[in-house]
Amino acid sequence: MHGQSAKERLKEELRKFLAVSSYLFVCFTVLLYYRSAILGGTGQDFTPLGTALVKSLVLGKFLLIGDAAAVGTRIRSGTLLQRILNRTVLLAALLAVLTIIEEVIVGMVHHLSPAAALAGFFGAALPEKIAGIFVMVLILLPLVAVTELRRAAGPSAWSRLLRSPPGGPP
Questions:
Q1: pTM greater than 0.90 (yes/no)
Q2: Separation between Cα atoms, residue 158 and residue 49, nearest integer Å
Q3: Distance (Å, rounded) from C-alpha 108 to C-alpha 51?
Q4: SS3 for 164?
Q5: How far apart are the first and last CA of the chain?
Q6: Do 59 and 92 form a contact (C-beta atoms < 8 A)?
Q7: For 98-154, how does the pLDDT look when each residue is reduced to its tens digit (9 = 90+)?
Q8: Which end of the chain is less congested by CB atoms within 10 angstroms, N or C?
Q9: Which candidate, 25, 27, 17, 26, places its Cα nearest to that of 67?
Q10: In 30-55, which positions are buried (b, 16+ CB within 10 angstroms) versus exposed (e)?
Q11: Domain ranges (residues) in the chain
Q12: C-alpha–C-alpha distance, residues 136 and 134, integer Å
């Protein structure tokens, strides 16, 4: 990004944001449809796609903040696989912390104390929140892997690799 104009940097950041948020939106939509199918058997209907859109945009921005802060890139990793796993876990932790902060702020907007907002957030659904963190790790793993593989190969080699026939030379 060095040497780019502010307009070029903004364009690149917007492209990254849209790519990450689109990926997250697809993942969250699939999860919501899955949840809807499960709850449909109990007579409940649950498919708030607006929630998936907003959550994907917010978490997409959080991920770009994590990327700008170089979360997980300063840890020495012996292998590319270790770097991918370290970044995935640390980004999931960052998302968990930022999501908790977001819930406190939303609670305060609704005139709740931080303690009341946190109690409402965690409440009886703590196992669901922990499972959500594990699901987020699974969602982040391919995203981080592609990002790190692209960094390791270089943008031009990555582009050639994606455009070459399977089994052919990159």
A1: no
A2: 33
A3: 20
A4: coil
A5: 25
A6: no
A7: 888 888 898 899 998 988 888 887 776 778 888 888 999 999 999 999 988 888 888
A8: N
A9: 17
A10: eebeeeeeeeeeeeeeeeeeeebeeb
A11: 1-53, 70-170
A12: 5
